[in-house]
Design goal:
homodimer, about 10% strand, 7-stranded parallel sheet
Chain lengths: ~325, ~325
């Protein structure tokens, strides 16, 4: 049923940076992650594990490798996985990326090295080219990750142009988390051959589909997967504007809170599984008043997470 | 002769983020690094290895651990080392820090986790507290690393106040690379007990010493160590202003170029060792015209690196 996630080995559709559950000692909780991934797939949402909203950059390379192994061992289809593998150090990016590809992941979402700022396009090109050469696999499909509000290292249209020209079967798409529709639109207008443009927020999903984009990779799909997928599947229908408006209402509610703790609190509440609310420092959980406020706002929207609790219990 | 670097187990004086030599495959060149560290120590400059200007964040945790081992095995005094150990992931920061302390390093320079932005002081406090508890050694001495222009995650005075209060024998100093003298001065005025304030540029060295600071940790000390140390040793003398003015002239020359490649090009030139000019992507070497321009400007200053070439040859 998830065949929409791949066409010609390239992703399209809805993916989410799966939120990361932690044990009380802040170690990753692989069992809860496996359950959540299975639920996401049941909702037709692909797995962009280790994204920004997965606290992916708060995990070590070794922790990420072990989690990928655990997911695949648990029967999660690697075809549905697009792990975040871009690190500050070239050697760590290569290690993570090579491991993901060896497991059969259909793609990786690759941040530029993000510590040094004002890096030249030439230097970013050299990084991606070096990673591609070292991984050395025709199965490698890179989705660039443009998220200037967090990484503070943008991926310019000129850099994409050069990478797509030199590595047309490897650099196959981008997640645009700039929040700037004009940037997304400019990429779509370039019409690079079969280049997959994902928006980083479902607020732009309809616009993206109407302009030739491929879907969205959105944190809110952790909590509102079915509705986001419904818009993706029906973007050409008459009800598309209404579906988009409903998605926006939910997203606007979450945007009133720190996003990652709010997503986790929401899952903790609707799964009746309070351990979900834990974050690894430097990120922290919502305060109890924020928590109450969030749940109240969601109730006003008649928000639900059908199937979540049953999934959580069935596979415990 | 380097006893100035430690008093009561806390650093003072001049340290440098030692530039990182690479082999042609971009692997770290431990032998060249050992030679350079020995030369730095001969110039009375301590070793803030894996700093920003060491391309420390372009190395993996495993690479940094191996390099620390190689330096200590080569007889470099761990008492003179203040490795950079702050990573995005708590578990990597703990691993690197514990290793540095197990080798006998007198301190570590610790970036806050720098991927997520607009993190609360509470979240940064939780990170440092967790690292301190996990490393669990009374030998751990943390120098906080405030470098908002690069990390984009500042360390506030309130955060320092709280850490110093709760961990007075562990959180013992800071490197202020804000480039904002008013920030440095505000810290000095707090007069935390024996708290060591280092400026990140020798341009503020005299002012820092005159206001109760402990020295500088400066990238330019890779190329101009003796002169920077001379000001540190003579900051109360009549010639201090002249010494500061001379330092500024050299620093201003380097500031006309991308700093890390310029430092490496300078060492490559004066050591007659062209392999020093290599950087790991995303950073790149100077262009040949920038290179020629840099060397010409240094010649106009009658700039020299006495002893560098002999050190490079003697220990090859």
């Amino acid at each position: 049923m998830n065949s929409h996630l791949k066409e010609d080995t390239r992703f399209s559709g809805v993916l989410t940076p799966v939120i990361m559950p932690y044990n009380s000692d802040y170690s990753p909780d692989a069992d809860r992650l496996i359950r959540q991934c299975k639920w996401m797939l049941s909702q037709s949402v692909g797995l962009a594990i280790f994204g920004t909203n997965s606290e992916g950059n708060s995990l070590s390379t070794d922790e990420k490798i072990e989690l990928m192994d655990r997911l695949v061992d648990a029967g999660i289809d690697a075809n549905k996985m697009m792990p975040g593998t871009g690190c500050c150090a070239l050697t760590e990016t290569v290690k993570l990326t090579a491991h993901a590809i060896s497991l059969g992941c259909s793609g990786v979402l690759m941040l530029p090295p993000f510590f040094y700022k004002n890096v030249s396009d030439e230097g970013l090109y050299a990084t991606y080219a070096e990673v591609i050469q070292r991984v050395g696999s025709s199965n490698l499909k890179i989705y660039l990750y443009h998220i200037p509000p967090v990484a503070n290292v943008p991926i310019s249209q000129d850099l994409i142009e050069r990478l797509v020209r030199d590595y047309p079967s490897t650099v196959v798409g981008i997640k645009d988390s700039s929040g700037d529709w004009s940037n997304t639109k400019a990429m779509l207008e370039r019409q690079w051959d079969d280049f997959r443009v994902f928006v980083g927020s479902e607020a732009f999903l309809l616009a993206n589909m109407q302009n030739g984009g491929s879907g969205c990779i959105s944190a809110t799909a952790n909590v509102n997967p079915a509705a986001i997928y419904e818009l993706f599947a029906n973007w050409q229908s008459e009800k598309a504007d209404d579906l988009q408006a409903e998605l926006n209402e939910v997203r606007n509610t979450f945007s009133k809170f720190p996003l990652i703790p709010a997503l986790k609190q929401c899952v903790a509440h609707y799964a009746e599984d309070p351990d979900w609310a834990r974050l690894r420092p430097p990120l922290l959980s919502l305060s109890s008043s924020q928590n109450a406020d969030l749940i109240e706002k969601l109730k006003l929207l008649d928000f639900k997470m059908p199937g979540l609790k049953a999934n959580s219990r069935a596979t415990k």
